[in-house]
Amino acid sequence: MFFLMRTACCRVFLYPFLGKMTEVWAELSAYEGEFDLEKENCILISSGKNWMEQAAKDQLLAVSRLPGVVKAVGLPDLHPGRIPVGTAVLSRGVLYPHLLGNDIGCGMSLFDTGVKKKKFKQEKWVSRLEAVRELEDIPFSNPYEEECPIRDLGTLGGGNHFAEFQCVERIYDQEAAGSLGLCADRILLLVHCGSRGYGQEILSRFWVPEGLADGSEQAEAYMAEHDRALRWAVRNRRAAAQKLLAWLGGASEPELLMDSCHNYLERTKDGLLHRKGSVSASKGAVVIPGSRGSLTYVCIPREDTAVSLNSLSHGAGRKWARSICKSRIDQKYDRDSIRCTGLKSRVVCHDTNLLFAEAPEAYKNVEQVMGVLQEYGQRIGGSL
DNA sequence: ATGTAC
Fold first, then answer.
1. How far is CA A60 from CA A45, A110, A157, A238, A311, in A?
2. What is its cofactor (predicted)?
């Protein structure tokens, strides 16, 4: 299990608005001549400055051509995966379990720890966390009146999952910050994880290359399990926060300020909306974190986001494949320096490969991604 | 991203 703790000096911005996404701004020049953009159902929200791997664009295009797919959107953090990450895909008649992947319900929960900023002792918390090693080692009993399908409730898992203590760096809109319950003098806790092995197990049971016919018994059974995974993923994030605070001696319960899911299927009036690494722009404020060396943004999306299937990026997005990270930056760090960040935060993680795989260098610049989301509207205006 | 096998 990967347990990454970024302590102190991480900051939350409150962005007043995201750009008004009102026109298709495609950056698919690589495909010039290959298809007529006007007739394609594939949109990439990016800009010339926003570097994107060719493989990711190829994957997005392939997804957009699956039977039943009405529209496929790539967000500015799009990067290749088994299926491309940073996508929103609308289909009719067919449901594709693999388009949302194995970690069904994965998302971000932002909590107020109730701990005052001036009471925060970084070194003390770091030692305490290093002593426990893994969240699996902190016992937690299921408080819900439903059998828990997750083997270890309140654990983060691996990959890009993390728990991070943060505090507000800058507020752009005091009123909005107040209504969201963001307090500048408090330590916040951002938890990114999902349904662990449960989502994986669901995918393995329902995955078929041709997808599931909407309305079929299989599709209904998948949706029931999917909804259960979403429910338990939220509980898993909460349980992780509860365990952490209890372990660190926090007196109060973590208070949930915001929660968003970025791997899930939503039934909309237009069809089945598959989100893989993209978050809804229609459910209030969203948290968009960067890599562990950068800031996290709390954003209030604008209303007119139909062009991106009402979706936003869920983070900075990978720039380097996990497998190549260690060899690229191995020499740059020693045992201690890889565990510190440019924001003077500390990283607690016992898995060396994971520390390198999730290094800030492996990620895009989150400000770049935020810039595309914001600029997208500024340069366009008008209505869709 | 995951659990398990190598």
1. 12, 30, 27, 33, 15
2. Mn(2+)
In this complex, the answer to whether residue A161 has its CB under 7 A from any atom of chain B, a nucleic strand, is yes
CA A381/CA A22 separation, integer angstroms: 6
Domain ranges of chain A: 18-380
Burial letters for A330-362: b for 16+ Cβ neighbours within 10 Å, e otherwise? Answer: eeeeeeeebbebebebbbbbeeeebbbbbbbeb
**Residue the block writes with tokens 């298809």:** A35
> What percent of the residues of chain A are helix, what percent strand, and what percent coil, each to the nearest 5?
30, 25, 40
Residue-wise pLDDT for A48-70, tens only, equals 778 888 888 888 888 998 999 99
Nucleotide nearest to A106 (CA to C1'): B1
pTM of the complete model: 0.90
Nucleotide nearest to A197 (CA to C1'): B2
pLDDT tens figures, A280-339: 999 988 999 989 888 888 888 877 788 889 999 999 988 998 888 988 998 899 888 998
* Alpha-carbon span A153 to A141, nearest angstrom: 8
Topology (CATH level 3) of domain A18-380: tRNA-splicing ligase RtcB (3.90.1860)
- Choose among A112, A156, A102: nearest CA to A132: A156
Total residues found in chain A within this entry: 384
A230, two tokens: 């979403």
* Cβ-based contacts (< 7 Å) between A 191-220 and strand B: 193-194, 196-197, 199-200
**Is the CB of A263 within 7 Å of strand B?**
no
The first and second tokens of residue A105, run together, are 């319900």
